[in-house]
Amino acid sequence: MGGIPTIREVAVAADVAIGTVSRVLNGHKSVSDDVRRRVLKAIKKLKYEPDRVAQSMRLGVTRTVAFATRDISIPGFGAIVNAAEEALRSNGYTLLLAMTDERKERELNLLRIFQQRRVDAVIMATSSEDDTELSKRIRSADIPIVLLDRENPLQLDAVTLDHRRGIRAATEYLRGFGHTRIALLTGNPSTRPAHERIAGFKEASSHLGKHANHSIIRTGAFSAEFGFREASSLLSGATRPTAIIAGGMAMLAGVLQAVRARGLKIPDDVSVIAGADSDLAALATPSITAVRWSGTDEGRMAVQLLLNRLGNRSAPVQRVMISTELIPRESCGPPTR
Amino acid sequence: MGGIPTIREVAVAADVAIGTVSRVLNGHKSVSDDVRRRVLKAIKKLKYEPDRVAQSMRLGVTRTVAFATRDISIPGFGAIVNAAEEALRSNGYTLLLAMTDERKERELNLLRIFQQRRVDAVIMATSSEDDTELSKRIRSADIPIVLLDRENPLQLDAVTLDHRRGIRAATEYLRGFGHTRIALLTGNPSTRPAHERIAGFKEASSHLGKHANHSIIRTGAFSAEFGFREASSLLSGATRPTAIIAGGMAMLAGVLQAVRARGLKIPDDVSVIAGADSDLAALATPSITAVRWSGTDEGRMAVQLLLNRLGNRSAPVQRVMISTELIPRESCGPPTR
DNA sequence: ATGAAAGCGCTAACAT
DNA sequence: ATGTTAGCGCTTTCAT
């Protein structure tokens, strides 16, 4: 009584039964205009707000969706989350955000938390697609899960990115300048964005004879640190690559740093392509050629799949691929050695 | 029975009363070892996970905190949210994220949603500090609110940033090169980060005579678009500024774009300072001098204040200011006209 | 140490 | 058209 008003207080104030208040709240037909008015007035007077927790409990749905991502501070993820939150909110859902830090323990832990909180669905990019424990936990979670740029487990809905085509285009673009010693830096090949990039990279070189193909592939992580480390080691080697593809969302910063630390000029000494677009790529001097896609579409589509799934739990698996395109800028030119 | 197991099923499986299961779950002392073992076994066997929704309902606390920000895709906000989520999670809380889009309607709407969802507290940066309707709603929300880089309403806890000192240092730094025609671009002066930047800017010029001070201040928004628009107009004017300070998180990109579009060189034609650090500032060529602070500290501190408040609702208002520093890089030099 | 039961705020099924 | 009530899953008080 002193605290937050409940439906009961509204009922008393309007002199009706609580069931009637509930009916008004939920727009049921069979309520007389007079009663409806009285109830509405009482609601306004008491500043009553329905308790979504109680509703969740009663209804068995929370209208809450969890979004688990590696690290929201990575440029690019923000746009996805932004779009997802907006799509979710306009459908009456609320977004719950959690960082996985790309650590399996955390993911497992988060899955439990999501389960306990009874979220209606989750959107996530797992750290690995072939860890059996993780896969098992994911499949046995009886919450709909939409994978983000992952395709395993296969029975899950997923929105993926066409990295393969993007990196193939990037590689062909570099070959067009005459590059043969091209390095691709990317993440753990057990995740889709890494192995698809590798696939696209190889496809672009498949017509080449063994002797003409001096491709270098370094895998490990999608991070800026990894990009810096690998680019540094590559660039200081005797037969350094004439072009580098930074195959990760956050990787470009590390690669640029390494290039700069070695006093090299882009594109004169080394050509660079970013596997994901960003402010940095667009506004660096020289600007960096990049593989681009719409993070907004990605986030929106994930929510779309989710909503579909929530509407029909037994519908067939949904798979949507977001297209990518190469945005040529100033960071590529012919090799000079 | 077919679905998710409840405490009741665990009780049946362990052949005890549900109250006893609850006691085991919550680590109460008075449970015999034998019973505890049986209960634990039943929990494991059934893969029982306590329902946090039911707990919330019973306990009147959700262990959920809402974070409302303008746009999570703005570089800089990610780090804050990241830090906040981590701090929150390690304290058993879950983060609920929502975008305000810097629109009052949305903020009002979000406040309602947060109230309905019975979040325990909210962290937010409001779009305005002097809108009476918004202020009233905020003060009347009976949820603890921690302001982020805002200081009104005054009765709220807040973590603020020392923009004043940062911009004063930036301005003095530019004056040290001999600049007199310096432009400050920043957001709506009704918000703290804008008026504090303006204050710092003015402080750095206060010793100057009227005739020697050709400062230009343009306010409106913190966005890249605003930065682009204002920098463009300033740069194409007859008496263009010799230095520009981009006083907003997302603004640098717009300013750099404008400079580039006019074919101007930094720092030869115009010196540039960013009011917030970013990958872009650090790795642009030339790299951009920036006012820097720790977003991680900012996010963590907000959570700290929240936790304190939750521990004592009637404690005095808490105010913490995060320090800033100027990171000199390559984007500033003497004016050349 | 453990069981029984009330009750958190709500919706929906059942009465009238 | 409206009132009454069971019950969602849990914690806690009160018995024993």
Beta-strand fraction estimate of chain A: 15-25%
| Rg of chain A, nearest Å | 26 Å
By secondary-structure content and strand pairing, the structural class of chain A works out as alpha/beta
- Seen as an oligomer or otherwise, the chain set is homodimer
SSE ordering of chain A? HHHHEHEHEHEEHEHEHEHEHEHEE
Identify the CATH homologous superfamily of the largest domain in chain A: Response regulator
Shape of chain A: elongated
Structure explained in plain terms:
Two copies of one chain form a homodimer. By secondary structure, the first copy, chain A, is α/β, with parallel strands linked by helices. The first copy, chain A, folds into three domains: 7-50, lambda repressor-like DNA-binding domains (434 Repressor (Amino-terminal Domain), Orthogonal Bundle), CATH 1.10.260.40; 64-161 and 295-323, Rossmann fold, CATH 3.40.50.2300; 163-292, Response regulator (Rossmann fold, 3-Layer(aba) Sandwich). Chain A has 13 helices and twelve strands. The first copy, chain A, has helices spanning 7-14, 18-25, 33-46, 52-59, 77-89, 104-116, 132-140, 163-176, 192-203, 224-236, 251-261, 279-283, 295-311, and strands at residues 64-69, 94-99, 121-124, 145-148, 157-161, 182-187, 216-220, 243-247, 271-274, 289-292, 319-322, 325-327. In chain A, the strands form two sheets. The first copy, chain A, has a six-stranded parallel beta sheet, sandwiched between helices. Chain A has a six-stranded mixed beta sheet with strand order 7-6-8-9-10-12, with helices on both faces. In chain A, helix 10 packs parallel to helix 11 (251-261). The longest helix of chain A has 17 residues, at 295-311. The termini of chain A are far apart. At the A-B interface, helix 4, helix 5, strand 2, helix 6 and helix 11 of A face helix 4, helix 5, strand 2, helix 6 and helix 11 of B. Chain A binds a DNA duplex (16 and 16 nucleotides) through residues 6-8, 16-20, 22-23, 25-26, 30-32, 35, 50-51, 53-60.
